[in-house]
Amino acid sequence: MPYLRSAIRWGSDFILRAHTSPTTLYTQVGDGYSDHNCWMRPEDMNTQRTLYKITSDSPGTEAAADAAAALASASIVFKNVNSSYSITLLTASQSLFAFADSYRGSYQGSCPFYCSYTGYQDELLWAAAWLHKATENSQYLTYLSNNQGWSQAVSEFSWDNKFAGAQTLLTKEYVSGVTNMAKFKRDADSFICSIMPASGTTQVPTTPGGLLYTRDAANMQYASSASLILVTYSKTLSSAGIHGVQCDSQYFSNEQIRAFAKSQVDYILGKNPKGMSYMVGYGSKFAMQVHHRGASIPSMRVHPTRVGCNEGFSTWYSRSSPNPNIHVGAIVGGPDSNDQFNDVRSDSSHLEPATYMNAAFVGACAAAMLTDLQLSLHNNQTTFIRQY
């Protein structure tokens, strides 16, 4: 747990430092275009570290609300181990939420990279849901109730679309007796039905090997995030004595939902037609040409001479040999819709790693491990009873 808290604190400290006033949040360091035009180790980078920010005059509700949600959730982690830090996080979260809600304007209008394509209403619901969970303050439930019309039935949970996450959190309120949260549960059920194969209302196809396939670029983010929602939602239903979800004419038990989520984790880790782990460094077969600057150029210890912007492309990016550094733990974009995977560094859609792929996978993987443990215990108990 100390290691986990340390990792969370690294991110929350960054957000705290970026929130320099009640109506200012720095959202990006560095120019994405000039950075993408260079293939360099981070130690060699000399491109401009341009700063981008949102303010009351140039708002970005999505970014401010997302930061608020992150700090609110982090405050829960530290509540019982470092109460003063937890309060600091919660205070900043409330400030960011007030900024996001008071100065509404889409980040689409002021962003340089990772713009919003789904609007800011999902992030406002997401932030309010986490703030309610962190504070138990009824004002956030009132806000959510008043704005539940924003909630939409969706088929993805991603860095841009937070509806399914908010709906999953708020379903817990509904099953706990807050009956005016019913729309959130209906929309969460709809998400489950849009993901589960052969539900009658399935919207996301699977590859022949069984991987959820939302879109071609960086698809593993959608498979891992959907898995996290599936296991979390089924756990919420089970704790409330609800045994599953009715989808059209097809009923899925919580066990079936968790089993499908686990199949996605298993696929990512190597149980797929290629027999390949899409987590770098895990298993005996994994991506060797990860689309990553630091991984594809020798370390400073091995190659102390500076590697320039263009030299990185001509000498290292275009090489057909494996990367000199193994980016252990990184999840790459994954295979195409037919489970095919071409391990070529230039194919960023399938070889580029990203934090938004790993982040959700951690929770989904933990749940899959727990499922395996519970199944093992059940089988052992059954064997013991039979022997007895």
TrEMBL record:
It comes from Acorus calamus. Residues 3-365 form the Glycoside hydrolase family domain. The keyword Hydrolase applies. GO terms for biological process: cellulose catabolic process. It catalyses: Endohydrolysis of (1->4)-beta-D-glucosidic linkages in cellulose, lichenin and cereal beta-D-glucans. One of its GO terms (molecular function) is cellulase activity. The keyword Hydrolase applies. Keywords: Carbohydrate metabolism, Cellulose degradation, Glycosidase, Hydrolase, Polysaccharide degradation. This is cellulase. It comes from the Eukaryota. Belongs to the glycosyl hydrolase 9 (cellulase E) family. Its EC number is 3.2.1.4.
